[in-house]
Amino acid sequence: MVQDMVGQKRPMVQTEQLIKRFGQNMVLNGVDFRVERGQTVVVIGPSGSGKTTLLRCLNHLEKIDGGRIYIDGELIGYREHNGRLIEDSDANIARQRAQIGFVFQRFNLFAHMTALENIIEAPIHVLRQPKDEVVARARKLLAKVGLSEKEHAYPHKLSGGQQQRVAIARALAMQPKLMLFDEATSALDPELVGEVLKVMRDLAEEGMTMVVVTHEMGFARDVADHVVFMEKAQIAEQGPPEQIFGDCLNDRTREFLGKVL
Ligand code: ADP
């Protein structure tokens, strides 16, 4: 019981003084980032401010140069040894990644597999779940993203918006505890953006924990529980959308929003 209460209170994501450099370029300069369980946090900010890198660090697609990342209380990508961090085993990193869904700007579907085959691939081969169970779940997910009739379609027969919805279903098929979206609608024709945002909004409303990097300020305003504004490798300002889109106090946030709204 006590354990459960502690588990409920623990943030889903917590970074402590996260540092990431590419060569001389300081890309994340001591970032403390937190996402509560069930929350949708939207990360906004100018190009090059470190938003994508922050997401990629969260599931260890990038190695970090300092600080700590915890997902659901578990140190990600590393283990501590005499106060120092040593990169974790490939098997452990793969296990951690399997709990975190990642949706990329480019949909990255397997071109030689149908929509359904794309969705069932990882649960069968990574999680080794029984095929009939996985297929049944995949069909439910296809229905959820509005693509039941596209079960047998190959990616090249699908629009960009449909492909991205399959990519979201594929990530959800792993039953992740956290979903990360990296500019998931930026590569889409404008008329296809809405159908993907709707799927993301539904997920948020169902209580999925989500971190969303996006330029869609309407989505941030309507769906986010918390908005993080990044600038120059740091979190420059954060708060509820009413604060960030209302009378944000930080001049730089105001200037950025003045350009994009
Ligand atoms: P954002 O998502 O806010 O546009 P990014 O996280 O993509 O910002 O990039 C932050 C900085 O890191 C930029 O200066 C970018 O050029 C640099 N960067 C990102 N990825 C790499 C990489 N793989 N190698 C070298 N530099 C990179």
TrEMBL record:
GO MF terms held by the record: ABC-type amino acid transporter activity; ATP binding; ATP hydrolysis activity
Has UniProt tagged this entry with the keyword ATP-binding?
yes
Subcellular localization, per the record? Cell membrane
SMART domains membership: AAA
Q: Which Gene3D superfamilies match?
A: P-loop containing nucleotide triphosphate hydrolases
This protein's UniProt keywords: Amino-acid transport, ATP-binding, Cell membrane, Membrane, Nucleotide-binding, Transport
Q: Which domain of life is it from?
A: Bacteria
The UniProt record lists the ABC transporter domain at 13-257
GO cellular component entries: plasma membrane
InterPro entries, per the entry: AAA+_ATPase, ABC_ATPase_HisP-typ, ABC_transporter-like_ATP-bd, ABC_transporter-like_CS, MetN_ABC_transporter-like, P-loop_NTPase
In terms of PANTHER family, this protein maps to: AMINO ACID IMPORT ATP-BINDING PROTEIN (PTHR43166), GLUTAMATE_ASPARTATE IMPORT ATP-BINDING PROTEIN GLTL (PTHR43166:SF9)
Q: In its UniProt entry, what is this protein called? A: ABC transporter ATPase
